[in-house]
From TrEMBL:
Organism annotation: Agrilactobacillus yilanensis
Sequence similarity: Belongs to the TRAFAC class YlqF/YawG GTPase family. MTG1 subfamily.
Matching SUPFAM superfamilies: P-loop containing nucleoside triphosphate hydrolases
Function, as annotated: Required for a late step of 50S ribosomal subunit assembly. Has GTPase activity.
InterPro entries named among the record's database cross-references: G_CP_dom, GTP-bd, GTP-bd_ortho_bundle_sf, GTP-bd_ribosome_bgen, GTPase_MTG1, P-loop_NTPase
Gene: ylqF
Compartment(s) of residence: Cytoplasm
Keywords: Cytoplasm, GTP-binding, Nucleotide-binding
Domain (CP-type G) ranges: 15-179
Designated name of the protein: Ribosome biogenesis GTPase A
Domain of life: Bacteria
Amino acid sequence: MSTIQWFPGHMAKARNQVQEKLKLVDIVLEIVDARIPISSQNPMLAEIIEHKPKIMILNKADLADPKQTEVWQAYFKQQGYASIAIDAQHKSQLPQINKVVRTVLKDKIQKQYDKGLKLAKVRAICIGIPNVGKSTILNRLVHKNIAKTGDRPGVTKNQQWLKVNEEFEVLDTPGILWPKFEDQTVGTKLALLGSIKDSIYADDDVALFALDYLKTHYAPRLLAAYKLNEADLDQDNPDLMLFLTKKLGFKEDYDQFAQRLILDIRKGRFGRLTFEDVVLATDTVGD
Ligand SMILES: Nc1nc2c(ncn2[C@@H]2O[C@H](COP(=O)(O)OP(=O)(O)OP(=O)(O)O)[C@@H](O)[C@H]2O)c(=O)[nH]1
Ligand SMILES: [Mg+2]
């Protein structure tokens, strides 16, 4: 039996708590990281949500490639989900959530009014993997810093109801990962963007992935940020990594460069980046 460090006991408990609370809510707000909209979805949560209405919230859109975000939203629409791309740091974008929730639930809400109720109450649960911004979104929605937030995974430890208004309550939940990544690059991407504790993944593996992705998808930005010549990119990735390690003054200390690259990506030094592509199912044929 192998021990799985990113699925400690509190996460199993958190998953069970989500399952229990699902009975009480009308709708699920699934928060994903707009830079990795698929890898930041938890397949285990998808299983327990089953047929509950769900809205996909692509958060940290301020850090993601805007063109890609548009394509991802079209993708989720094709999958049958309403989606919203937001930057939770700016509260001006948050009223969208309430609006979309009420649009998705309009039949249910109408029934409440038909029964003569003055208020049509809606309860939502906010779920997602660690560090995608669930608590930040909820604080913005309620205009108070009630939920604890922080730039590391595992900040929220317990569920907490937050009241947006008389008609809308949302449950904040701890971020949940799942026990086994079928695809190792999923784990690497989660580590790169801070949803898995930094200590669990080897920085140089994460940095090698990131370097390769930048080279392939955002080469001009990589050249500009580290003042490289195009020919420098002809080296294979481990050589390029050593080259950059020396160029940035870290001598032969790969790890220091790896940490620097990861930080530069997280801080937006390469501009807005998305680390996952999607091809839409119905690309028009013949025109
Ligand atoms: N740039 C940017 N940063 C954000 C955004 N939303 C949240 N953050 C930051 O991301 C970090 C994580 O936010 P939290 O709200 O604590 O994330 P969480 O999903 O509640 O995390 P857990 O409780 O660990 O599951 C914090 O440093 C936030 O300030 C956003 O839209 N854009
Ligand atoms: Mg939280």
